[in-house]
Amino acid sequence: MNGFFTYILIASLTIASPGPGIVLSISNSLKYGLKGAFPGIVGVAGGMFLVALASATSMGALLASSVTGFAIAKSIGAAYLIYLGIKLLRSSSIKLKGDSGEVPLHRPSTGARFKEGIILTVSNPKPIMFFIALFPQFINVASPYVTQFLFLSSTFCVLVFLIHSIYAMFAYAIKARIMSAGGFTIINRIGGTCFLLFAGLIFYTTKFS
Q: What transmembrane ranges does the database entry give (predicted)?
């Protein structure tokens, strides 16, 4: 496999760039604690594997070659970001159990947070274009394609989990310093605004690209 460490570097920089998934991981860590953030992180990583799989199929080729299809897929992703943004903005200040400031009373189930991470990832078609552009650069034509694809995809998903976990751990570490009586309301507003901004950016690039 050609340039595996180069692949690691490119993938890590891409994953670490601020985006909806990062916002979700940080927001979950601040609201539900470090353990509470992991289901969403696993969901994002799992969703990324599904996106990588789609990029290797005819669906990925279709989205890459069809302007209309890609625009529709982007619009669906933007609509889901708007839903998440409004959901956070409408959330009231979260009350806490005990004095630890860690677990909200109305805590979504593990499955709900996992599903949210998956939907957030698969509703964004941009990673498909990334995989279509990136994977061929690191595929050795003399070796089995499926084995290499699975290895590259799995590596990317592991990096997603590790990097998002680092963001979540950092957010959790500074949680005590930034939380106050209305702290969760502020976090919800910041997270919701970020999701809406990402959605607006997607609609803007779809219209003018």
A: 6-26, 38-56, 62-86, 128-146, 152-174, 186-204
